[in-house]
Structure formats: structure tokens, C-alpha cells
Amino acid sequence: APITDDNANVTATAAPITDDNENLRRGKSTCWLENMFGPVPPLLTNVSQHMCRHRAVTNMGNKDNFNTIALRLSQGLPVNVVVFGGSVCMGQCVGRDTKDTFVGRFLQFLETTYPTKAANTHHTISNLCKDATGTNQAWEAATKNRDIVRNAHIFLVDKGSNDIQESELTGTWLRPGHTRGSDSLHFWTEALVRELRTSAPNAALLWVETAWREWYDSNCQQVLKHPCVAPFHRDASHAHLQVLEYYDVMQISMLRLLGPLGSVKRRTWVDQAYFCDHYHPNKDGHMLIASTIGQALDDIIERKRESGLLFNKSLSTATTTSPINATSDSFLPIPITMKEEDLKFLSAKPQIQLDLTDPSVVNVTLSEAGAWSYATDIPSKPKTLMTSSAGTCATLNLGKPTREIYMLRLNLLFSYEGFGIANVELVEQVKGSKARVSLLSETINCKWTSRTSQVSSVEIKPQRGHTPGSNIFFKVCLDESSADTEQKLKLFALTLY
């Protein structure tokens, strides 16, 4: 039928779209969670909900891993979130208050979208992030905090930028057996996945790749002394993905969401909309990360509801959670990077742990000091065991380990200037003898070519076993080649597995 005057009048007098209606319309189509974070920033209006729920998800993984958290959230029960990451989730660029990071924003999402029903209950965040650390140290944090890890309902892991720095830019990242490069990256990614899966088999596991390196020309010129090259990013997300696909773990990539970065226009937009510098997201970037995680979780829960997989029964009787009672890693697939001896090490508890920033630990264990001392050369930096005298050595008495030694882990300071070469050795003194036998020896260059400084771990496997009941000593020397220039060494921690 042709349009009548009445129809025309109705059309002409219909209320125009107001700001509120526009916000509501955009809220349904954009990734940004406006009801929590306010109006979407102008530069991010084109990042749609569909992009966050699908484009950003580089590996969906097994959705059954989200059964427990989906059921708890649907029933108004509190959930525990455990986060592993580096300076991004520590608040670089947005302040050290967790609430301003994507971690805190994700907690805000949970509290707003899935409030708890019982009085005096709430969702919790355990932030196990640490500046400038890779997945190897996330694994270490997980093993040291197993009480926290075992009670988790969802894990968030953000290591894409730090892993690529540790494994490629610095060349110091080692796996047991002293293998360098991407093999170490795969190894520690798999080690962390297996640790989290074993400790909390019913918890959801989500890898979140929030940042990348070597993508903006001004930064490449400053650090690398040449322009950035295609594909205009360096990060560990692809190496992570090779392991995560095998273990059916979900991965979200902010690079996949905002990229590709082939054009100057796109890189400029990403720089302005997402980053505060060339490594860390800005305030809007953190809220976009939280929005993306929240959208992905919403999508999973909505699909489970539509499929009838969530229902109003107690967790104790709900069969959809498919609980796994794991007392070992026997329910996990065959490892892809690990040998049997690696699995022994990964399941072993530390035998000896020395925090060398503690003066009492240094005083008790330092048997031969040489020119080493508990000190600092920079007043604003913590004191630890250090030296600036080339050719001098320190020896620590580690006591008598009761089990086989699988690995020695050292936490040393690495920097681009003023640091030398460490010669380290682990020796045993057989009971009833003054002779000392070497169990391992290694040379570690603590000077980096990249302009960065951080405490990083080095893992070294013994070349031979020790005699039970024998005394173990650790010896560290600043190599004599460091005498040509003023150089130093700083040792922060030692762990014997």
C-alpha cells in the first residue's frame, strides 16, 4: 500500500535518536563496555563487539574448560581470578593501583555483570604479575603460590611482549639442559600450562596477548638504530599459540583485534588509540583489554545458556562441570617439548631457596666473600650480593640437599652497560674428604645489547649427579675480562631444585 498521510505524519513526528538511544545502540555493537567504562572513546568506535568476540580470539580452545566459571557466575557465586604477567598488569603507564589496569577493570566487569548473590561474598583477584618477567618466572610464581593457584576459577596469562624480549633480544633465557631461543619459549609455555592444569584442573585458562614490540618507527630508530620492518611487530603470541593449540587453551590477541599493522595510518591509529608508549597500553587500552576478555567470556556463557548447558542446580550435583580429580599430570596429553627428566624437575619442589636481598641470608650462607659484599651502588636500588672487582669470587654454602639435584636457577641483573661476565660453578664436597667435585659450570654474559635492564633468571642443569649427604657449594666469579672496563655483577636469588 502507498504511504498515507497518516503514515507520513507518524514518520515525520517520530522522535530523533537521542544521545541515550545512540549510546544504547552503540553499546550493542561495540566491544567497549559502556555501562562500566563510560562512553566509547572516539578512536575506538569502530572496534565492534563481533571483532572482540571473534576476531580477537586466535584460538577458541575447549569451551568445556569454562564450565565451572560459567556455572558459578550464572548462579551468583564468587570466582577467584589469578593473573600472571609483567609490567602491563603491574600498571605501567596507568599507575600501580591494580584497579586501573585491565586486571582491575576485568574485576569491575565481573562485579557489574555477574554480581554475587550471598551477603559478604565477592569476586577476588590474585595479581601474581611481576615487572619484566617471562613465562619461566610465571611458572616459578605458580609453583611458589600453589595455595592461591589451586583455588583459582580462571587464570589470565599475559606474557607476549616479555617472552619475546627474554628469548630473542637478550639470549639469556634458558630451559633445563641449556637450550636457547624459541625452544625455551615453547618449553616454559608448556611448563606453565601443565602446572596450572594440574594444580587447578577445573579452572578456565586464558592467554591474553596485550602488547608487542618493534612496531613504531621512532622506537625502532631509538632502540634498533633502523626503521621497523614488516610485519611491524615482534611478540611471542605465535610461539605461545603452537603450544596452546595442542593443549586446547583459549588465546586472545589485541594485535589480532587492532591489526594488521601494514600501513602507516593503521600504526598511527594504534599508537594514539591504544598505547601510551611503544610497549604499554594507555588507560583506554586497558579498558579495551578488559572489554575484550569480558565480551569473550559473555559469548561463552551465552552459548552455554542457549545450549541448555547451564541450569539451576548446586555445583555438587551439576554434571556439566565435568570435574577432574587430578593428583598428577597423568590426565594431560603427552608433552611436546619435554623429556622425562624435565617432567621430574617440573614436579619437584625447591630444595634450597636463597633470597640474597636479605642480609641475614647472605651472612649465613656466604663462606668465602672475596671482594663480594651485601651492597648497592645506586642508593635507590635494593642491596644484594654484588661485586665490581674483576677476577674475584664468592662462595655460598648450600648445605646438604636430600634429593637428586635437577636444576640450578639464578636470578641475576642484566643490563646494557656496566655489567660483566659471570662464571658460575656448583660443586660438592664429598663426606669425609676435603676435595670438591664440580657438578656444573656455566658462563653467563650479563651485558645485553638491547637498551634495557632487568633481573632475569637463568636455569642450568647439572652435568653430573651428586653423592647423597655431601655438602654443596655455589661459586660465582666476575670474569677477569671485565677488568678492561668498570663492570659489576649482582646476584639476587638462588634456587636449587
TrEMBL record:
SUPFAM superfamilies: SGNH hydrolase
InterPro entries: SGNH_hydro_sf (IPR036514)
Designated name of the protein: SGNH hydrolase-type esterase domain-containing protein
Organism phylogeny: Eukaryota, Sar, Stramenopiles, Ochrophyta, Bacillariophyta
Domain of life of the organism encoding this protein: Eukaryota
Organism: Eucampia antarctica
